[in-house]
Design a protein that fits this description.
Distance between the termini of chain A: 31 Å
Number of domains of chain A: 1
CATH superfamily of chain A: Aldolase class I
Oligomer: homotetramer
Strand content of chain A: 5-15%
Shape of chain A: globular
Number of helices of chain A: 9
Structural class of chain A: alpha/beta
Helix content of chain A: 25-40%
Order of helices and strands of chain A: HEEEHEHEEHEHEHEHHEH
CATH topology of chain A: TIM Barrel
């Protein structure tokens, strides 16, 4: 490596070294229909924060799949700030996600909290690395030795360079299927849970060839902001969205305030479809 | 006042006490055509950061007016962090703005730095209060006793409540023509000059009836981000945009990196027009 | 000016151009005893947030003067986020401050909110520029044409360079008696009102020859943190402290949570005196 | 659990449920002399950022032990933002740390990056959880099942509540030997690497019974600020300090700018000893 490379060391993630957009293919096996993201392919990942029960995940997954979501999201093991709050259904949650995948034929994304869960996640189609683990290098290296796509959420105060260097840990181990996700940064402003940094979308797309999606649900923490921020993210050029949907948000076991209802999601998915042709692209 | 009112004291700015959108009419006299902003009326304010010369302001103003800008912007007295950098043309700048107003028939917005300039600004159609003066209460009170519209930019670390309370200082003195402007907040992230907080748009429009516009030029400080962030701001529901345009950005006496060229502005104005029907609204 | 000077343009504030510490002399006329600050001279400025009544200010001023405060603080015109909260006693407050000055023979510091008050402040010994007005250049220039010392509080999100450039506005007009004050910056952390940035003390003292003091009361907003943060500020090398004291904090008309009682101040002043010989100095 | 407990759920860390200070004993076996931290016991942890060679670690460890450090620090596996920078000597580094421990008879602290290293760390006396792993719950739970002390560094944007909840993950698994470390938070201000939040010291000591130390080296990232910030941390009531020392800072393989030399450390250790009797305590 030359000195210049050391100074800007996300060699594999750098668009300068890989000008064309990376297109990540998601979903293999279990009878699901693979989908593409990046390079003009746009996907919505939708579903509940946590898998809570068979009825809950089945109902929501069917509804979002029907409304246009290409990928189903759902948490099985949940990273929770407190050790005393609901930690997810675990193994049972993973089984329910597999069931839903067979039912809807849509690939599944679920957050992975550490090394020890990798084998258990064999039917999950995208390993989601949460904001808290963005710099858990032991986990990133291990996922770099897997073949399935890895979605990395921006850490709560990560710079874009740090996010790309975390992606580089995965890429350097051989896994080229990395997706980046802007999900809000921590600022002094507490009207929203975090401050959605939409300028990250065009900047990242200039810095890297990897797909960039936006999570307006975690970024804002408020259901009524999911629609305007989803439309804004699309307008700014995002390759996809991750949206929390719950049939009964008030009763959700986690993140109750930010989930939208299936019927709201259906309306929003149509608005997203309508605005997409007018989105920014270079 | 009751205790409840003391706790949420932006009484006049509060949408709860004034459910319908305020529509501000801009431009009277000097032969200009008045324009409206708010309540479904969308305006682009465009022009150079600073008025630099007769040729410069005339050329840019004519170009942006032709491309669809409803209001011309230009700085005469400039707030500069250092006392040793270009402080604006002052009185001469104001005269050039009046000339341009007569030529284009478009109203003029220009930043006012203090009490002592109010009389001098008699031909300026919107008093712009900059981010540094958002809590200059002496100035806000004085502008509250004027009749012309006042545009208040969000302070570099102001909460939305603080912004509304600054608006309240103007409203409480009798001037009801207040426009709010999101222009980025200061965060740890230094890829952009500031972090554009677009969720402020739907939140402010829920909190208040006043028009809310976005300034992507100062927010990002980078010309290549002006287009994606303008489209995103429109998608999020903004009532207008303030965009810096310069015929020769490299030679601009201030803010050279963030100005776009007249031909780029013309292209962007058309994209804005195209995306507007798909923007978020409640 | 050379290019190098333009890049680091706080020429008059820069320690490189003025290696020895500036010593500011405070207090002339009205029978008060002048005090020095900077260059090894340490001063505590103490008193209530706002002057509320003759009894209140007289009692507190006498107590803090007896306990070791060299300068009395008290607000006459108060910058308040809301136009509907107590705005200070105004002219009557200034008269009470003059009375107290004659009584205690201690100089007075009081915040000035704008141009229009300069004449009224003829008996105030230090013009305090609040955090909200740190970049009110019209005010800074006007105070630069005065002879009395100017204390500039760091803006809520100001960098140290911006603080020095605000000082430069005063110095460039001819007034060399500038004191800087660290009073906390706005961060995501809301346990304290602001985050006291004590590393600003040794950094500023390296960058500039001007005296640097610390205001732990406004920085933390919590009375129980005033003592530990005062001792820490002294240990870090501060030239002085500004501390809010109130005989009956619960009943204070502003900033009730952060004021300490006169007896707590007396105990703290003794602890400050004891720790001073062990403070950092280069 | 009652609702009240759920709202403030760091039950085991909470001082309300455990009023007396926790005293953590560090160092067992390998012939080292155990030391105590907390409850009036003050310790300095000092040494290089990374173990680089036998000579390097032996020289520095002997020097800091002689000057008063109670615990030796040194990194074997290093968390690095980039996958291409020096990642530590690994196993060899751990062997050198054991050698140094036998030589100086001082306990050792070293950062642990993940589950897979726990067994390898059998001779390390304190498991250090770095800022990037503060919310790596898989790691925290595993360390909670160990007996040796765990030092948790505050995440780069963690609130104090989040820090205590991470401690709670360890405590809830049965390990009561937790030490907290303030090491600076990420703010807009880039003069220092991070902003040292010293008010965290008295606040944490009010919230919890666990020992609280300060790392001025990582907080500021600048060697010349280590002395003033160490003295300030002691004045604010810290139970200890973690200080980076290197015999030849310019040649250090990591964090070259923030290490002080052994002779500077010796001088600082004496100043710390001198100021301690005047530090804040409740």
């Amino acid at each position: 490596m030359t000195t210049a490379q050391v100074k800007k060391p996300y060699l594999l993630a750098d668009r300068k070294n890989h000008p064309e957009d990376t297109v990540v293919t998601v979903g293999t096996g279990d009878g699901c229909e693979p989908v593409k993201i990046g390079g003009g392919n746009f996907q919505i990942m939708a579903g509940p924060c946590s898998v809570e029960s068979d009825e809950q995940i089945t109902e929501i997954a069917a509804a979002v799949a029907a409304a246009g979501a290409g990928i189903i999201r759902g948490g099985a093991y949940k990273p929770r700030t407190s050790p005393y709050t609901f930690q997810g259904l675990g193994e049972e949650g993973l089984e329910l996600l597999l069931k839903v995948k067979k039912l809807t034929k849509k690939p599944i994304i679920s957050e992975i909290m550490g090394l020890s869960h990798i084998e258990e996640y064999s039917h999950v189609d995208i390993f989601q690395v949460g904001a808290r683990n963005m710099q858990n290098y032991e986990l990133l290296k291990a996922l770099g030795r897997q073949e399935k796509p890895v979605l990395i959420k921006r850490g709560i105060s990560a710079t874009l360079r740090e996010l790309l260097l975390s992606a580089e840990y995965v890429l350097a181990e051989g896994n080229k299927n990395v997706i980046l996700c802007e999900r809000g940064i921590r600022t002094y402003d507490h009207y929203t849970r975090n401050t959605l940094d939409l300028s990250a979308v065009p900047i990242l797309k200039e810095m890297t060839h990897l797909p960039v999606i936006v999570d307006p649900s975690h970024a804002t923490g408020r259901a009524e902001l999911v629609a305007p921020m989803s439309l804004a993210a699309v307008a700014a050029g995002a390759d996809g969205l991750m949206i929390e949907v719950h049939s009964n948000p008030e009763a959700a076991l986690s993140d109750a305030l930010q989930a939208i209802k299936p019927e709201e999601f259906a309306k929003l998915a149509a608005q997203i479809e309508a605005i997409r042709p007018f989105a920014y692209h270079k």
